[in-house]
């Protein structure tokens, strides 16, 4: 992680950090360093006086290899799993990841902010930023949120430690791809409200189906206080999983939906003019209400995200005026559905979905493209990662869906060939991203819409960048502060 987690006006003393990791501490220096810690970080390049460096293990790097470097940079102390030959105070713990989380959890308790945790398969980052926008509309700089998609065992502690003292409302994104991960993150976050977006086919290489995915995400509810709220979609096939977890925990459950056929405490639909109609039931904090406002994001899944964000905001007592203001002005982020329109007279729209993909989010993105009024439409699809043994079938399913919708499909990658085969004569196949880039000039030159979607590992942000080079652009889509993909 590259950012420094400043702890605000009142610094964290070394003894407080030691208290936080007491159960993990194996050895402390004979003499404790003097002074306070005003940053906790895992990026050695950002180390300096007043910082506590956490030596985290990783797939590409081991933080222990950089302890000597942070010592030269003047860091106050290092949290390590084994002693390192370096001139710096070292606290040896059984597990640096757990210790990092423990320090963040202590800081969160002292902070006292009311926190929403957002978990689920798809839409987490967009929904998190919607909640953050509502919080800002209501309480300005007394709010905080996850930057980028720092939602794992490193990102969540970083996020919590980044919240300034005086923060009153915050929203934290929590993600997982293995069993047990979400429960640990939620235990660090200790949210007042858990917002579950959906359960879909993500990380199926590591999880045994959608029901297990729903269960693992739903375990965040166990970290709620007795006064907490579990917020989840009643039009999701796994809603019974979350309802059972909420009942077992004894917290209040509230539901949201877009499907008019199911019962929900918050529902967003569109009226005949295309404005959003957001209805709350009398079970929600604040009581029954109907809000009507312009909503600038296409797609039912985005209305679904907005309904969940609004309902979570109500559990914190945030006013409806803030909900309307924030959702009226909200725009999709780059890499996550941003609609970028050219200004060279070509009348081209590029839907940037290059950050992530699974079968269900692919289909949702295709439905948005179908709704676009442009006469020419092309869906540029790359491989979906972590789909496990069902990879060929999942890609074929998406290709068949494109054929059903009548879309032209350009595919790229080894697995996406199955999508091209299932789509049939309206598909065109490319082996590599480099090959695809060479042929982008063959796309319609005007009055067209293109969707670019793949898992992040495919590097489809290069496809978006090349399309923008080919057309003068009005690239005013918002970016998450530390996520430009």
From TrEMBL:
Domain annotation Mur ligase C-terminal: ranges: 342-443
Subcellular location: Cytoplasm
Domain Mur ligase central per the UniProt entry, residue ranges: 118-313
Transmembrane intervals: none
EC code(s) of this entry: 6.3.2.10
Residue sites binding ATP per the record: 120-126
GO biological process, one term: regulation of cell shape
Keywords: ATP-binding, Cell cycle, Cell division, Cell shape, Cell wall biogenesis/degradation, Cytoplasm, Ligase, Nucleotide-binding, Peptidoglycan synthesis
Signal peptide start-end: none
Catalyzed reactions per annotation: D-alanyl-D-alanine + UDP-N-acetyl-alpha-D-muramoyl-L-alanyl-gamma-D-glutamyl-meso-2,6-diaminopimelate + ATP = UDP-N-acetyl-alpha-D-muramoyl-L-alanyl-gamma-D-glutamyl-meso-2,6-diaminopimeloyl-D-alanyl-D-alanine + ADP + phosphate + H(+)
Molecular function in Gene Ontology: ATP binding; UDP-N-acetylmuramoyl-tripeptide-D-alanyl-D-alanine ligase activity; UDP-N-acetylmuramoylalanyl-D-glutamyl-2,6-diaminopimelate-D-alanyl-D-alanine ligase activity
Gene3D superfamilies: Mur ligase, C-terminal domain, Mur-like, catalytic domain, MurE/MurF, N-terminal domain
Top EC class for this record: ligase
InterPro entries on file: Mur-like_cat_sf, Mur_ligase_C, Mur_ligase_C_dom_sf, Mur_ligase_cen, Mur_ligase_N, MurCDEF_CellWall_CoF430Synth, MurE/MurF_N, UDP-N-AcMur_synth
Pathway stated in the Swiss-Prot or TrEMBL entry: Cell wall biogenesis; peptidoglycan biosynthesis
Main localization, broad class: cytoplasm
All copies of domain Mur ligase N-terminal catalytic, residue ranges: 38-92
The protein's role, per its UniProt record: Involved in cell wall formation. Catalyzes the final step in the synthesis of UDP-N-acetylmuramoyl-pentapeptide, the precursor of murein.
Family listed: Belongs to the MurCDEF family. MurF subfamily.
The name this protein goes by in its record: UDP-N-acetylmuramoyl-tripeptide--D-alanyl-D-alanine ligase
Gene name per UniProt: murF
């Amino acid at each position: 992680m590259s950012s420094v987690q400043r702890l605000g006006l009142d610094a964290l003393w070394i003894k407080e950090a030691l208290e936080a990791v007491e159960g993990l501490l194996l050895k402390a220096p004979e003499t404790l360093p003097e002074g306070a810690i005003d940053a906790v970080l895992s990026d050695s390049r950002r180390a300096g006086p007043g910082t506590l460096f956490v030596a985290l293990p990783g797939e590409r790097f081991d933080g222990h290899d950089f302890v000597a470097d942070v010592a030269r940079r003047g860091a106050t102390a290092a949290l390590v799993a084994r002693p390192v030959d370096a001139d710096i105070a070292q606290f040896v713990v059984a597990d640096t990841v757990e210790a990092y989380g423990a320090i963040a959890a202590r800081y969160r308790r002292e902070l006292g902010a009311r926190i929403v945790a957002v978990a689920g398969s798809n839409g987490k980052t967009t929904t998190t930023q919607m909640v953050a926008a509502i919080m800002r509309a209501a309480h300005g700089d007394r709010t905080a949120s996850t930057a980028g998609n720092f939602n794992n065992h490193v990102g969540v502690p970083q996020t919590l430690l980044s919240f300034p003292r005086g923060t009153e409302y915050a929203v934290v994104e929590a993600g997982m791809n293995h069993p047990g991960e979400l429960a640990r993150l939620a235990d660090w976050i200790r949210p007042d409200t858990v917002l579950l977006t959906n359960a879909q086919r993500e990380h199926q290489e590591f999880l045994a189906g959608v029901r297990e995915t729903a269960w693992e995400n739903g375990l965040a509810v166990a970290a709620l206080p007795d006064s907490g709220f579990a917020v989840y979609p009643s039009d999701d096939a796994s809603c019974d999983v979350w309802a059972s977890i909420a009942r077992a925990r004894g917290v209040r459950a509230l539901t949201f939906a877009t499907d008019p056929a199911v019962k929900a405490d918050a529902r967003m639909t569109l009226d005949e003019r295309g404005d959003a109609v957001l209805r709350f039931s009398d079970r929600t904090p604040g009581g029954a209400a109907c809000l009507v406002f312009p909503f600038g994001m296409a797609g039912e899944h985005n209305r679904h995200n907005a309904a969940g964000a609004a309902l979570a905001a109500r559990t914190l007592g945030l006013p409806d005026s803030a909900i309307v203001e924030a959702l009226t002005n909200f725009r999709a982020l780059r890499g996550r559905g941003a609609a970028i329109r050219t200004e060279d007279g070509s009348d081209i729209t590029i839907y940037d979905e290059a950050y992530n993909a699974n079968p269900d989010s692919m289909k949702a993105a295709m439905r948005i493209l179908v709704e676009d009024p442009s006469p020419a439409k092309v869906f540029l699809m790359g491989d979906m990662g972590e789909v496990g043994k069902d990879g060929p079938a999942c890609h074929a399913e998406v290709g068949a869906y494109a054929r059903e919708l009548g879309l032209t499909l350009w595919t790229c990658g080894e697995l996406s060939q199955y999508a091209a085969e299932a789509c049939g004569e309206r598909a065109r196949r490319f082996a590599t991203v480099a090959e695809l880039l060479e042929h982008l000039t063959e796309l319609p030159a005007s009055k067209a819409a293109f969707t670019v979607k793949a898992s992040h590992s495919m590097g489809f942000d290069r496809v978006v960048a090349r399309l923008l080079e080919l057309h003068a652009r009005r690239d005013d889509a918002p970016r998450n502060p530390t996520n430009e993909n």
